Each structure stands twice: as C-alpha cells, then as structure tokens.
Amino acid sequence: MRLTCPFCGPRDLREFTYRGDATLRRPDPDAANAASAFADYVYLRANPRGPHREHWYHAAGCRAWLVVERDTATHAIGRVALARNDQP
Amino acid sequence: MPRQRRPGTGIDPAQKLDFQFDGLPLQGVAGDTLAAALLANGVRVVGRSFKYHRARGIVTAGPEEPNALVELREGARLEPNTKATTVELFDGLSARSQNRWPSLGLDLMAVNQLASPLLAAGFYYKTFMWPRHFWEKLYEPAIRRAAGLGRASGLPDPDSYEKCYAHADLLVVGAGPAGLIAALLAARSGARVILAEEDFLLGGRLLAEAFLIDDAPAHLWARRVEAELETLPNVRILKRTAVFGAYDDGTFGAIEKVADHLPEPEPGQVRQRYWQIVAARAVLATGGIERGIAFGGNDRPGVMLASAVRTYLHRFGVAAASRIAVFTSSDDGWKTAFDLAAAGIEVPFLADARADVAADLVERGRRLGLRVELGARVEDATGATGLNGAYLRSARGTTWLPIEALAVSGGWNSNLGLSTHLGGKPEWSETAAAFLPGKTPSWMRVAGAAAGAFGLGEAFRGGVEAALAVLGELERRVPAFDMPIASDDPARTTPLWRVEGASGKAFVDLQHDVTVKDVELAHREGFKAVEHLKRYTTLGMATDQGKSMAILGQAIMADLEKVGPAGLGTTRARPPQVPVAIGALAGRHRGRQFRPTRLTASHDWAAAAAAPFMDAGLWKRAQYFARPGETNWRQAVDREVLTVRAHVGVADVSTLGKIAVLGPDAGIFLDKVYVNGFSGLAVGKVRYGLMLREDGFVMDDGTAARLGDTDYLVSTTTANAANVMMHLEYCHQVLWPQLDVRMASVTEQWAQFAVAGPKARALLSGILPSTPLENGDLPHMGCRPIEIGGVRGRLFRLSFSGELAFELAVPARFGAALWRSLVHAAETLGGSAYGSEALGVMRIEKGHVGGAELNGRTTAFDLGLGRLLSRKKDFIGRVMAARPALNDLHRMRLVGLVPLDGRAKLPVGAHLVPEGERPAASVDQGYVTSAAYSPTLGHPIALALLSGGPERLGQTIRVVDPLRDGDALARIVAPVFVDPEGSRVLA
Ligand SMILES: [Zn+2]
C-alpha cells in the first residue's frame, strides 16, 4: 500500500504509523457532559466497511499527521490532507 | 537400471551429472530435475506418506508435487520437504527419502494402515482428548514419530540472503505461452517489464508438449522470444523466481533462488533473494495445474498426472515407465496416449470415463492401434511398492490388466492463488470445468490457462489481449508483432471426481493422506462448508496446498450436498503461494544486523573498559565497569553506588529522549501535554513533569527545562522517546494547530553526562573553572548555558540518584572527549564512572518510578504523583483521570518493601498475598515492580504496586514467587529508602 504525502509524494506504507478515526473531535473538557463525552472519544469506535477517514503519521518522513481517506474493504486510498488543515 | 535417454527440449544428454539418492549412486543429465533423473533411473518409490506410510512416487513435474518430498544436502544445509520435481540436478547432489523407518523398502510404520480407523479425519479431536497427560507423554510423541515429514538440521543457516526492490510498468508472472507473448509485446513497446518465472527455463508447457508453432517445435519459439527479451534494456527476466504474494497497489513479493541449483553458493553469493516488486500493471500468466481422479490406490507409485508424463517425455526425454496406461475424463489424456504411442512406448489401454468423446480423437486412437475404452473407469490400482496393474471397469465388465504406470487426467485447474490474495473470489466455470479467478484489482489481469484458456491458441490470444489492454492504459504504442500460428488443441473436460465402487483407499490429498472416506465422514459430522472441510480433514493444508487434488475433496463434498462445485465454492489462498524460507525474508537482518544499534558517546571507552552492555530500545548502555578482583557483577555495582554516595560518579545519560520545543506558544503547549504547569516556569529552571494518555493513565515522565523565553527542552524516558515525539506532534498538528510552536528530536545531537555525589561540585569546578556553581548561582532544578573548551553546552542541576548532582550536555561529537575528562576528574577525587545498574539501584533507593512502574496501567494517583495534577488548566488525560475508579484507594499503588529478615530477595514479578493466606490468584494483592540490593542500607529493597498500599505502611505482606521458589515476608514502607527528607540534593 502506498500513501501520497502532501509533502513527500507517494511513499510506502512502512514509513507511516496508523492511529485511527480522524473524524473524532476532542470534547470540551469544561462541558457538563465532559466525562461521558471523553469516554466516547477515547473508547467508542465504529468499525465501518468502506470509506474511512483516518489519521496516519509520516514517522519515517516529514512527521506530518495526515488525514487519509481509505476504503477499509479494498484499501483504495482517496484524498490525503495535512491534519492541521483539516479542522472543523 | 537407467533407461536409454531420449532427446528432450530442456536437457543436454551429453553432460552427465552424478548424484545420490538414499546413498545409491545414480546419474542424470544437465537440465534434469531430481524427479526426472530418478525416473530416468527407474526409481519409483521416493517416500512414505504422512499418516499411513504408504509407498509414494512422483506424481507431477512441477511445484504442485504432493508426494516426492526429499531431504536435500547434508549438515547445516540440510533442507527437508524439498520437492524433487523442482530441484535442479547438480553434480554431487545428495538426497534422501523422508518419513521412512527403518528404510524406504521395509517400512515398519506402514502398520498405520491397519490402524487407519484411528487415523481418520478429526481423530485428534476425538481420540486423544482425555486424559490430558496421556497426550503429552504418549500420543503426541508416538504420532510425531509415526507421522512426521522431514527433519530440520538444527544448525544455524550458513548461507546469506538479501532483499531487493524493483519497479516496473508491467510485471508478468509466468513465462509460458501467455506470459511470454504478453511480456514480448510490452517489452517491444518500451515499457519496463519484469518477467518472473519459477522454473529455471522459460517456456512452460511449450517445453513439455509436442506443440508446433509456425510449423516448428514450440520450444524453439520460446527460445527465440527469450533471446529477444534478453537484448532489451527495459526488460528484467527473473528465472527461478516464485512470486509468492500479491499486495495492495501492485506490490508483489517474490523469492529468487539464486544459488539453490549449485552445490553451495559461490563465495559472496547469496542463496536466495527476496524481491519486492512494485508494478503499475500485472499480468498473471501462472498457467494451469492438472488434477487427478479419486480411485482406489490412486496414490500407488506409478500413478501420475497425464501432463506430467508428457513433460518427462518431451522436456526431459524420460519415459516414466515402459507400459503406461491412460485414465482420463478430459481430452488431455488422449494427448498423452498419442505422444506416448508416437514415441514407441506401449500404451496398454486408454480409458475415458466419458462415453461422448470427439470423433477425431477416437479415430486417431484407433488408427494408432490403441485399446480405447469409452465410458470406462479404473476402479483400483494395485501394487503396494509400485504399480503392477489396474482393475478396468467397462461395459464388458471388470478386468485386471498389468501396467507399470498410469497417466491420469481429471481436467485442469487454474493456478489462481495470486488472484485471490487481494480478496478475489474464484468462480466455477462450467465451460472450463474449473474454478477461475474472480474479480481482480483494475491493475491485475489474468491470462492463459490461469484464466481458463487451456488450449495453446487461446492462451496466446489471452496473452496478447492482456498486453494490449495494459499498453492502452499506459498510453504506449502497440508494437509490430506476428501472432504465432498454433493449433487449438481440444481441451474439453467432463469432470470425474471419484470412481464409485473403488475398494482401496481413494485419496483426495496425497500429502496429508486425506481420503474420500474422510470427506464423507466430515459430511456426516456436519463439517460441510469448504473451510470446515479443510480444517476438519486437513484437506489442502500440506506444503503443496492441495493445488492439484484438493478440488476433488471439495467437489465430492459438493456432490454429497447436491449443490455442485459452484454452490460449495473453493477456499481462497493467502500468501505465501509457495513456501518461503524465513532466512530469505530476514535477508541481512540477522545477528548484529537484526536491527540498527545506537551507541552513546562513551561507548568506545566503556567497551575498552570491558563493560557489559544492555539493550535499551536500540541503544547499548554500559551496565557497570568491573575492576580487577571483582568477580561478580554485584561487587562492581555496589562499589559504584557507594562511590557516588560517598564521593562522586559520572554516568552517560545520553539515551534519554530529548525534544526541543520552540516558539512563542511553547509554554502553553507544554501546559496542555503535561499534568503540571510549564508556562510559568522561569527561564533557567527545570521541572519534573508527568504526561498522561487521554484515557487518564500515565504515558511518560521526565523533565522540561526552560532554556529561553520561547525555548524549552523536554526529556523523555529512553524507551518512550519516539512515542512521545509522535504524541506531541499529534497534539500540536491535530488538536491545537493554532499554537505557534515547533518541535524537533535532538536526542542524538547531545551527549549528556550525570555528575553525582557529594564531590560533584568540586569535580565540576575543575572542568568549568569560570562557571559559578554554588546554590545561590545554580540552585537545585536550575539550568544555564556554559562554555567548555570553546564549545557551547548546557548545565542542569538535576538529580536522579538523590545526591548533589549535575548533568552536563555538549554537542554529541564532543561527548567522548568530555566523558574522558570527567572520568579522569572523578578518579582524582576518589570517584569513578558508574553504569546503568548503579543508576537503577539508586533510582530504587530514591523511589523514583521507572519503566516497570510506568507500565501503561498505572495512574498518577497509583504512583503517588496525584498532587502534580493541576486543577487550574486543561491537559491531556485530565477528564478521564478524574474517573472515580482511577482514584480508588484500593487500587494497586506504589509502596516500598523491605524483607523482614533483612536478607531475603524480593524478586521482580513476585506476587503479594496476605500473611497466612495460601497463595492464589484470588488473594493476589499486587506485585513487585523493581528490586535491588541496596548497598547503602545493606539489605534488599523493592518497589511494588500493592492494593491500598500507602494505607498499609508498617504492615507485613507475603512476597511469593512460585516460578523461582521465592517466598518471604516483607514490611510495607514508604517508597523512599535513602535520604527521605531529600536534603542531600540541596547540598
Ligand atoms: Zn511526508
């Protein structure tokens, strides 16, 4: 598998470290429901078959955190963007 | 007796090669496989079967061989389970049959056959479940002896291996007709082509048949194409290279057997090469594999696949026997009979299970004078140590006919393994009477017999079609080429999976000895799905992966279920497609090269001092520096600790992770990742900090120094340096990208040395004469820039040992020189260097947590660090760390332990149970995390995690280590053993 890093171009899978779901947002720690919101944020994950937006770290490259669109069934890679530009 | 060698498309009969089989001196010729040479010498029995120890011979002429597994070579190069059908003969080759005891001819284990009800499918599950100890003592050793395959040498592999990477526009797997023509077209267009062929000759079936291409023998066409490809710079031909796996985005794994065909590799030559090939497009031209038919005794030595009989005849010039009958349910068998007859070999009969056979075949058979039996079957083959006859059942009844070999064809399978690695699901084709590759990724095409084009003409057309499609997608011009003029051999099959009425064992997996009866048993017991059938009977799970025969078992199950092959389906393959040596995957990464090594600045000095080293991540850390007369490591470590506590010691602490955090928001950023505050830290100060994971558990600890207004230096534990770096980048780039901060790992840029002990200041004042070092100038937890011999460095007042201590950092390239002068200065003050062991002992004496306590399951509260958690700010892990269960007093929490008798060891990993209780998991209250003998106190000490520990100081607990027979009583104490007031660091 290859990912196209916006900085480094197409690179082999082994340069990257996987983290997981990139659609999660860190909850407001001061909100009234912070405890349950954080429990969901830390522990709850969907396990979709199909398109998935996920975080990858270019550990052996530019050290950028990336948001990668990957199809979990086929490993087809869609858009790859810098996580820092992927804010809500 | 060696038979007269005929000419063959792949041999040089003039070049004789001597070899040995089971000690018997034999002779073959250049171009032979071991199997071809054995057949040429009349060797029929080459091994004994796995379960029943039945005599077995050579069945195939390729990598699908289930039977002819031999031990090759001797000593450290001994290689078990080698397929005689793929081993290239070399002069001096020595091979032995396997699984025979005491000898191949007289096999006492064949008595297993009489016990065969015991060895039926599922027997492990049923027979040997109880009693349990019978299994280990009795059943397992007996079964292993009786049912073993080859032996491993048990010696280190003397050969070397390497990895290679290659890129191509097109990878063609297989160099038969479809693969060769596809590679040729792509090559002529200028595309970068890799052609990988498992065999040592290109051509595939073109070498093995009596085909004509353009009115000339087919192998000459293959030779011509090979010659042209060799002249093209854009083509790489990889012979002896098996592509074993297909991976995402056109990535393939392949093993090139560089030197397996030599007695041993040349000096400097690797034995095998592991290729990782990335190709924009791939054409799988992996061919077909003929299948047998399940009749009684279909495993007898002499029963062979019909296509293999032709391969031995045409390619190797070997007649498999002098009287070879044919049993077929496909047109392929007829081809064998015609070729044998044309070569003057006696064909006692040709039995075709089909009543309806193309008239021209029948006509030709009659013309050749063959005894043709339509609608006939071989029910049983006879001859325990070599075929001597067969019971032939026809409309006229059953007759026994003497034969020496039987060529069998039940039709062809597509060799489709690679097409399934990325999820492709094979589909049954009624036309081809075979499972064919299902949907493949857009960049992968299948051509030739692998795609069900079993005739020569259609294989060529398939190869051309695939190449043209690839060239179109790659936007390359289509080169000029002549379509080879070749006949379309009839290749019709009406599948026949089993012969009803067989009385002997009818096998569907020769290597694992799975019979039709086993399949029926699996069906009766409900293991009907194709994957259940496989696991219950072990059908297709041997080294040949059932490539030729497993389809029989699956189809018989499909018949029993009355669903047909399409309804039951077939198993999907996973990589590797062929057995791959672990050594080849490891390549150069073995021994010292297993992984990179990181060396500290003091490494050479420590090595010269004969220090032993321990691995800390990739780092090598010196453990201690023994002096003459010290015979035991403890003497050296105790001396080093006492030297630090009484005088001064110097230690290399460079392996700790160092991360520069820079920018106007650096302080705010650190506030978010540490539980305690850093934005308020004054320039020139250092603070201990604790990082949590977002789930509230401790991730790492260390210090952060504020070197300047916008300039922090974070230290991490040695083991966690890379993880912390990744975590900090995540926090910045994903969580808080608006913060103006940047970071860089500087672990390797700085060498850092601890100078610890009452004389630390005296030592440093000699090294840094112009730097004020008194408490007023550089108090505990202070830092400042320094200059030392014109080199700019950093000085921290930090203590891990609990003594007055400093850490001195200089750019790594000056580290070795500084280290030598520090050691020298220490020695003049009665001090010395100390290693990681003494460092660890002093850490435990001071109760500092280390890797054993920061184990991913402890909280700040558990470690007595709860007071660090700021209430004034948010930080990673704050919300989750507040969960009540993470602050329960009964959690396992950090305490110290000392043995009641002042002597007993408290080993790491020992469990803590209440005094007077019988040790058991139900009363387990904690465990020892770190332990040492404290030379300062003169008795053993330990750190432990104990339920409700801090509330139980002064009580007694039992420390039990059943693995090492440890059992002692210990007093629970506060986890600081030396200088609990902490006054020494302030000296
Ligand atoms: Zn990158």
UniProtKB/TrEMBL annotation, chain A:
It comes from the Bacteria. This is N-methylglutamate dehydrogenase subunit B. It holds the Pfam family SoxD. GO terms for molecular function: sarcosine oxidase activity. Signal peptide: none annotated. It comes from Arboricoccus pini. One of its GO terms (biological process) is tetrahydrofolate metabolic process.
Automatic annotation (TrEMBL), chain B:
Residues 603-873 form the GCVT N-terminal domain. One of its GO terms (molecular function) is sarcosine oxidase activity. One of its GO terms (biological process) is tetrahydrofolate metabolic process. Residues 893-979 form the Aminomethyltransferase C-terminal domain. Transmembrane segments: none annotated. InterPro entries: 2Fe-2S-bd_N, FAD/NAD-bd_sf, GcvT/YgfZ/DmdA, GcvT/YgfZ_C, GcvT_C, GCVT_N, Sarcosine_oxidase_asu, SoxA_A3. It comes from the Bacteria. Residues 504-588 form the SoxA A3 domain. Keywords: Oxidoreductase. PANTHER family: AMINOMETHYLTRANSFERASE, AMINOMETHYLTRANSFERASE, MITOCHONDRIAL. Belongs to the GcvT family. This is N-methylglutamate dehydrogenase subunit C. It comes from Arboricoccus pini.
